[in-house]
Design a protein that fits this description.
mainly alpha, 16 helices, globular
Length: 367
């Protein structure tokens, strides 16, 4: 067996994910607090794209509006963080807008456990209602994509217009503590990092179990031939409602974890451009693989940080070039390289076995 084939068999998707997790576990010991915090943000993005891969990669439903659910999770957690750290009756930006009493919406999320649960369940509730009425009416393909993109505009406009409640364009900032612990503390940030990494592992295991189940096979059947599955007696709309709802819940969880790492949330973080970038991470890593989008989110955001620091004037062009190269030459994403490598290794092994058999046959004939 060749060394190349041994490598390809070792670097299966399961082993590759295991190596990534090990790497993410040990990296904080070699990185500064600032770099560890950046990596924690990238891991939150990796959680987000797992849900997107379930929706787009396995079900074939392209959503350009997941910034909505990511933002809802982030804003709900930000409300709790703002309330825990404030010194007055209401946050400062409300006083500037003439509000002296805490709105009911904020009162609900003053409890940390309600905020945590709400950051996941409220995006799921909104997504289920949206998906039910769109998929039941068989709105799909580009029409559904345009609809989700329009909803992002509505969401951002609503947040900006309700400045007295949401903080407007400035968003929610100035968080100081969580559960009584200082957010600026290095130990707290390290705990939040490993909490985010733990959530990534759990969400990945959940998604892997899902796609390998009968439900997952039904999702792939919807992607490859929805009409044929519908004619077989399956209610495909309910499958799409369920996966869209789950994807939104994962996005809400990612948003909640992201705001803990960043310490702020603004409408610009959940607009159209961030929603499109989320899809690009999935495409760059390789949709329909789970591990691919995780790699795409980590690699793309790391490259974005590197380019912006080393080439601040040209980083957008450099990052755009990376996107174009991958789309043109790696349409299957980064994971397509692994598939090509494995196929080449298997082909070389097969050729080697045949060559050995021919040599043995020749020797036996000569003898």
């Amino acid at each position: 067996m060749t060394l190349q084939l041994i490598g390809t068999r070792l670097f299966t998707r399961q082993w590759l994910m295991f190596l990534i997790i090990v790497l993410l576990l040990v990296l904080p010991f070699f990185l500064s607090d600032f770099r560890t915090n950046l990596l924690g943000r990238y891991i939150a993005f990796a959680i987000l794209v797992l849900g997107l891969d379930l929706l787009w990669g396995y079900t074939g439903v392209l959503s350009l509006g997941h910034g909505i659910f990511f933002g809802l999770g982030a804003y709900i957690m930000a409300m709790y963080l703002s309330l825990e750290g404030m010194t007055g009756a209401v946050p400062d930006f409300m006083l500037w807008n003439g509000i002296t009493g805490l709105p009911l919406l904020w009162q609900v999320f003053s409890n940390p456990f309600i905020a945590i649960i709400g950051a996941v369940t409220i995006p799921m509730l909104i997504a289920s209602l949206l998906a039910f009425f769109t998929f039941r009416n068989r709105i799909k393909d580009v029409y559904f994509t345009i609809l989700t993109q329009a909803l992002v505009l509505v969401m951002v406009t609503l947040i900006v217009s309700q400045q007295s409640i949401t903080g407007g364009t400035n968003g929610l900032t100035g968080f100081s503590t969580i559960f009584g612990y200082s957010l600026s503390s290095a130990s707290t940030q390290q705990v939040l990092y490993y909490l985010t990494l733990g959530c990534l592992i759990l969400v990945f295991l959940l998604c892997a179990a899902l796609v390998n189940s009968r439900f997952g096979r039904a999702l792939v059947a919807i992607r490859d031939g929805e009409n044929r599955l519908r004619f077989s007696g399956y209610d495909t709309s309910m499958f799409k409602v369920a996966i869209f709802t789950l994807s939104a819940g994962i996005a809400g969880l990612a948003g909640m974890l992201y705001v803990l790492q960043v310490g702020m949330i603004t409408p610009s973080m959940i607009g159209i451009i961030p929603s499109i970038e989320m899809i690009l991470w999935v495409a760059i890593g390789g949709r329909g693989t789970l591990i691919g989008p995780v790699i795409g989110a980590l690699v793309t955001n790391s490259a974005k940080t590197f380019f912006s620091e080393s080439h601040p004037e040209a980083w957008l062009y450099l990052l755009g070039t990376v996107f174009v190269v991958i789309v043109l030459f790696l349409p299957g994403g980064i994971m397509s390289l692994l598939r090509k490598w494995r196929k080449e290794g298997e082909r070389n092994e097969s050729d080697g076995v045949k060559r050995t058999e021919r040599e043995e046959t020749h020797r036996s004939q000569v003898s």
